[in-house]
């Protein structure tokens, strides 16, 4: 468990879920209130939840179980039984226009303003509501003022002048004073309090914003906008544990999202399983979070399966598809990623998820400039889009642009300091720059966030080795191996470390295990290093057959091909020397008593190989005058031994006759 992890489970932070008919009634009322005020995202989220309720008369399959998740212990009070199915509500349960709490004299202005608002003509909407004082038109007017100013400053972007920023901030100050005045006079409601919290966020008054958002959630707990805005401000696990929230069933969904954001994956799966059991098993929101959670836990195959199920349920949904594209990128599934990119463009080519998918597609094809273009486009649409900053840093690293990579990763950490990929990316960048102490710090931060991820542990060990701390490196590699080491990085690093500390027997054992586990289908530099070590290892121990076998394997790699050729010549030379020495040292009587099935073809075949290699060596030696004397002496000695060998063979043949 991480040092940051809290001791939380469903029993401690969860809230009992009422019967599904009560949940449905709450959602229907909330959806009308949200839609009347133009809070479209919250309204859409509520409608998704409404669809997931177990309604109707037809029985459904058993409650889903999350794969790989061990159900936690939950107190009896929270084990709410799955309710009986209910009939679909009648249309009379919904609000109609004349039921909205808006005075008749303001209704026409409100209806016209809402059509302008839906067309994103925020200033026109505000204009038609300037004389309205009831709560719904007042909220829509002030929210339109805020959206008009905010969208304008975002569209201008880097071209905005200081006077524009000053004007924008003056408007925010005016809105905050007006909303605070309404709140003090108790003429507002939870939605106006929510808008005050949003304005405080823009003014960077975060403590006041948290206070207002919590107050708003207490009044209108089904406003998902407020929960998400509050979640963006709670970026620390300790703050989350100290947060005082209303005892409402929506709190379960909030914790589910925050656990995912803060990398508390086991707690997230526990809360999701609880909500599944309560009747939300068909919620696309929960299913998508489970898929992302498996991605975070690096259960790649299960995560891909979950995303494919989401696509089958709702093919035109783009939310979280950027995470799915990351999975396809890691698995090098070009066809699937191409299909996903094509489908995303057809749905909406101006969504940040689409830009991220296209960036991954072009990056997988090696077109890094195009990939960066789409990541920049995503950031222009949403400057706080965390995934784009991290992926942009990776693209800069591909182009050897370390400075911009560091800036991109740092920006990602400003948005969310629990983004372990950004910490890991910074560690890689500083490692490439040779700043190993900085690299060690960033890798350790990533390891704190992902204590069971073998990649982080092995990265720490690799930097320790480069810093000369062999003991810590050794411990890190062993720990990485114990954590699974799916990519076999710990195995190859451990083998290389054994070579450094002069333990060749252990190194050979690790290299053999690496070759057996990693398979022979991947042609990597580590494979060539392993084969070359094993060839030399067996040569030193006069295991010429094994040495010859591994040296031949090295011919398949460009980085070891030439060295392997020279090693093969050495193996043939030494083997011939050994055979000749054995023959010369054996008494004649023992030779005559040997079995007549002696293979007389083996040595001539090796001599033929030797003659070919000698010709190449002699041609090379003629070009190098400095080594002529040494090589001629060696050749003369070898020829004398071969002559003596041939005389012995002739004598044996004569005696056999």
TrEMBL record:
GO terms for cellular component: anaphase-promoting complex. This is Cdc23 domain-containing protein. Residues 620-637 have a biased composition (Acidic residues). Residues 583-640 are annotated as: Disordered. Pfam families: ANAPC8, TPR_1, TPR_2, TPR_8. Residues 22-290 form the Cdc23 domain. InterPro entries: APC8, TPR-like_helical_dom_sf, TPR_2, TPR_rpt. It comes from the Eukaryota. TPR repeats lie at residues 190-223, 352-385, 386-419, 420-453. GO terms for biological process: anaphase-promoting complex-dependent catabolic process; cell division; positive regulation of mitotic metaphase/anaphase transition; protein ubiquitination. The lineage of its organism: Eukaryota, Metazoa, Ecdysozoa, Arthropoda, Hexapoda. PANTHER family: CELL DIVISION CYCLE 16,23,27, CELL DIVISION CYCLE PROTEIN 23 HOMOLOG. Keywords: Cell cycle, Cell division, Mitosis, Repeat, TPR repeat, Ubl conjugation pathway. Residues 591-605 have a biased composition (Basic and acidic residues). Signal peptide: none annotated.
């Amino acid at each position: 468990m991480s040092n940051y992890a809290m001791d939380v489970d469903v029993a401690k932070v969860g809230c009992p879920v009422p019967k599904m008919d009560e949940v449905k009634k709450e959602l229907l009322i909330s959806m009308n209130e949200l839609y009347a005020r133009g809070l479209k995202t919250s309204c859409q989220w509520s409608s998704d939840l409404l669809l997931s309720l177990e309604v109707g008369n037809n029985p459904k399959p058993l409650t889903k179980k999350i794969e790989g998740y061990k159900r936690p212990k939950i107190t009896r009070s929270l084990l709410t039984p799955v309710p009986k199915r209910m009939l679909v509500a009648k249309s009379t349960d919904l609000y109609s226009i004349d039921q909205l709490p808006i005075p008749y004299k303001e209704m026409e202005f409100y209806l016209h303003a809402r059509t302008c608002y839906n067309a994103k003509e925020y200033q026109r909407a505000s204009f038609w509501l300037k004389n309205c004082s009831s709560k719904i038109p007042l909220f829509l007017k002030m929210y339109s003022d805020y959206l008009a100013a905010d969208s304008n400053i975002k569209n201008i972007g880097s071209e905005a002048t200081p006077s524009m920023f000053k004007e924008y901030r003056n408007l925010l100050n005016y809105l905050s004073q007006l909303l605070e005045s309404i709140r003090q006079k108790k003429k507002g409601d939870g939605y106006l309090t929510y808008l005050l919290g949003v304005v405080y966020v823009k003014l960077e008054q975060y403590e006041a914003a948290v206070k207002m958002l919590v107050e708003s959630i207490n009044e209108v707990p089904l406003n998902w906008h407020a929960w998400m805005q509050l979640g963006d401000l709670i970026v620390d696990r300790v703050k989350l544990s100290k947060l005082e929230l209303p005892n409402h069933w929506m709190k379960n969904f909030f914790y589910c999202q925050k656990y995912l954001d803060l990398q508390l994956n086991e707690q997230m799966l526990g809360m999701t399983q609880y909500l599944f059991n309560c009747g939300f098993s068909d919620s696309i929101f929960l299913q998508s979070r489970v898929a992302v959670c498996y991605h975070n836990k690096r259960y790649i195959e299960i995560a891909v399966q979950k995303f494919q199920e989401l696509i089958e349920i709702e093919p035109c949904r783009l939310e979280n598809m950027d995470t799915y594209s990351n999975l396809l990128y890691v698995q090098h599934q070009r066809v699937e990623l191409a299909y996903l990119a094509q489908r995303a463009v057809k749905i909406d080519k101006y969504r940040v998820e689409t830009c991220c998918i296209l960036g991954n597609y072009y990056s997988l094809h090696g077109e890094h400039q195009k990939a960066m273009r789409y990541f920049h486009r995503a950031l222009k649409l949403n400057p706080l889009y965390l995934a784009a900053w991290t992926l942009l840093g990776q693209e800069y690293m591909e182009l050897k642009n370390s400075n911009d990579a560091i800036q991109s990763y740092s920006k990602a950490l400003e948005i969310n300091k629990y983004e372990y990929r950004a910490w890991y990316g910074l560690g890689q960048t500083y490692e490439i720059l040779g700043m190993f102490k900085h690299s060690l710090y960033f890798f350790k931060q990533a390891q704190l966030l992902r204590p069971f991820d073998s990649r982080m542990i092995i990265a720490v060990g690799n930097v320790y080795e480069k810093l000369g701390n062999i003991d810590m490196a050794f411990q890190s590699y062993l720990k990485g191996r114990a954590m699974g080491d799916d990519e076999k990085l710990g195995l190859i690093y451990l083998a290389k470390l054994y070579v450094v500390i002069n333990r060749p027997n252990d190194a050979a054992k690790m290299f053999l295990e690496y070759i057996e586990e990693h398979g022979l289908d991947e042609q990597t530099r580590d494979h060539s290093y392993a084969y070359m070590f094993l060839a030399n290892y067996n040569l030193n121990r006069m295991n010429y057959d094994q040495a010859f076998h591994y040296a031949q394997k090295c011919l398949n790699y460009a980085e070891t091909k030439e060295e392997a050729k020279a090693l093969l010549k050495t193996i043939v030379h030494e083997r011939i020397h050994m055979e000749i020495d054995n023959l010369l040292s054996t008494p004649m009587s023992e030779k005559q008593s040997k079995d007549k099935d002696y293979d007389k073809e083996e040595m001539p075949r090796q001599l033929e190989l030797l003659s070919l290699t000698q010709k190449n060596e002699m041609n090379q030696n003629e070009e190098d005058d400095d080594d002529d004397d040494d090589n001629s002496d060696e050749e003369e000695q070898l020829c004398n031994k071969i002559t003596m060998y041939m005389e012995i063979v002739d004598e044996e043949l004569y005696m056999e006759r």
